[in-house]
Known about the structure:
The protein is mainly beta. It contains three helices and ten strands, in the order E-E-H-E-E-H-E-E-H-E-E-E-E. Strand 8 and strand 9 (123-125) form a beta hairpin.
Amino acid sequence: MLKIVGANGLQGFVSAASISQTKDRFLAIDFPVSPNSDIPDCTASRAKTSPPRIVYKVDPQLSEEAMKKQKNGQGIVLLSLTVGTDGLPKNVKVESGLGPGLDENAIQAVEKWKFEPALKDGKPVETPIHVEVDFHLYR
């Protein structure tokens, strides 16, 4: 049995055998609600947020030194950073890199990026994010 508790505290049980795992079938569950019950609006208490969005992007430089150290192919440097309320990246750090030369070039490129900052209730907020910087390492 699956126990379900509604926002107003009413409880009900559903047989687990009644629940479908196919996306085109569902089980409607109807709990009786007394006419005097005060069911809170769940959407009113949730803050409206939007993530940061890249508005200007610079590609990283691929130096000869870095090319000599890397194999042919494609590589990705994963960076963590904080997008400030001004939309500028701060505290850019390598989480997963390709080695000397490429990691530094990825950081230098991302430090020039510009973002539309994340918004919470319509106001810009600092937000930690991860970005991938893609290198094409063909000689």
